[in-house]
Amino acid sequence: MGFVAIDVETANADPGSICQLGVVAFEGTEVVETLDRLVDPEVPFHFGNVAVHGIRPADVRGAPRLPELYGDLERMMAGRIVVSHTPFDRAALARARARYGLAEFPCTWLDSARVARRAWPKYAKRGFGLGNLAVDLGIRFAHHNAAEDARAAGIVVLRAIEATGLSLAEWLVRVERPIAARKAAPPRP
Fold it and tell me: Residue 133 and residue 67: Cα distance in Å, rounded?
């Protein structure tokens, strides 16, 4: 079963200020398509965000705005399972979509951080950031590049499938359940 993974970088603290978009399509364990685009967010950049991802206003001058890329997003994501690492990218896309009055298209979201927290007990409470997971799982990528982050999030899900034997469809259910079954408290004397 295939899926796509998405990541965005933003120009400022507003999640809808998308300045880079990365979408990576997986079939089985293989990457079959990558969309890696700078986006003109049409808003000011904050130096803190630039320090994280290195994208400056001059870099997006002349780049397409999100509405111009929306057809590609719909083609890649509609009707598919879409992986993001934490809810941030989903929220950013929803905020940007609302800003431009773009229609939502149907897809099923899967949070790779929630997957990691359930697949490996050591990440249940902390350490499940994408950079840390990549180091521990041996995933090489250029952090804070949207397409690279999307690819890494997709690989986290593939590694969880391999480690647990749960299918992608089973992970959609598993992430909705508690991280670990709670043990009953010992009886009080």
Answer: 33
Domains belonging to the chain, first-starting first, are: 3-174 (3.30.420.10)
Instruction: Locate 187 and state its tokens.
Output: 């009886």
Sign of CA dihedral 82, 86, 92, 97: positive
Burial status of residue 74 (CB atoms within 10 A of its CB: 0-12, 13-18, 19 or more): middle
As a whole number of Å, the end-to-end CA separation of the chain is 52
Alpha-carbon torsion, ordered 161, 167, 170, 174, to 10 deg: 0
> Taking the CB of residue 62, how many other CB atoms lie within 10 A of it?
8
Report pLDDT digits (tens) over 101-155: 999 999 999 999 999 999 999 999 999 999 999 999 999 999 999 999 999 999 9
The Cα–Cα gap between 49 and 14 comes to 11
Q: Which amino acid is at 139?
A: I
Percent of the chain past pLDDT 70, that is, above it, reads 95
- Could you tell me which residues come within 8 angstroms of residue 111 by beta carbon, excluding any fewer than 6 positions away? 83, 84, 85, 86, 87, 175
